[in-house]
Amino acid sequence: MPQLESSTFASQFFWGLICFLTLWFIMNKFIAPKIADIIRRRRQKIDDYLTAAENFRQTAEELEKRCAAMMKKAELEVEEARLQSVAAMNKEMEETKNSMAQKLQEKINRNEEKLLRTQEEIKSRCDAMALDLAAQIADKLNLKLTKDKITAVLSKDKNNG
């Protein structure tokens, strides 16, 4: 085997060293810097993505806090509006109740007055009917009493009683 012959060792060593140094120089000057640059850019991109993700997280937390605050404010406004509506409805209901009570009292008063007038009218009719009846009875009994005499007797009886 020619690789193991001792006379070619120096030549093989020389050319092996030249190939090694050439490849090392090419790797060191051209390929390694490109690989290092790619790795550096990749790290930079990852760092940028992590920074952006952290910024998005912080923004999301701030938005969540603002949203929660807005929801709380909206809930308070809704509760306040509900309380105002309830108060307004209660006030309106109370006003309606008072108005209806007043109208009812007015109707009661009018009906009581009407009843009193009707009662007086019935009483006067009853008195007139009683007077006519007493006059007819007196006529039937031949007592010679006139309506005026009967009225005088009834008036006297009312004043004594």
Question: How is this structure best described in words?
Answer:
With 161 residues, this protein is an all-alpha fold. It has one domain (25-160). The chain is built from two helices and no strands. The relative contact order is 0.02.
Give a quick summary of the entry.
This protein is an all-alpha fold and 161 residues long. 91% of the residues lie in helices and 0% in strands. The mean pLDDT is 90.
Write the SSE topology:
Blueprint: H1 9-140, H2 147-160
Keywords for this structure?
161 residues; mainly alpha; 2 helices; 0% strand; rod-shaped
What structural class do helix, strand and pairing data support? mainly alpha
**Largest pleated sheet:** none
Beta-strand share of residues: under 5%
Q: Please state the average pLDDT score.
A: 90
- For the record, give the distance between the C-alpha atoms at the N and C termini, rounded to a whole number: 169 Å
Helix fraction bin: over 70%
Instruction: State Rg.
Output: 62 Å
Number of strands: 0
Instruction: Please mark out the parts with pLDDT under 50 across 5 or more consecutive residues, or reply none.
Output: none
H/I helix tally = 2
- How is the quaternary structure best described? single chain
Q: How many domain modules? A: 1
Shape: rod-shaped
Secondary-structure element string? HH
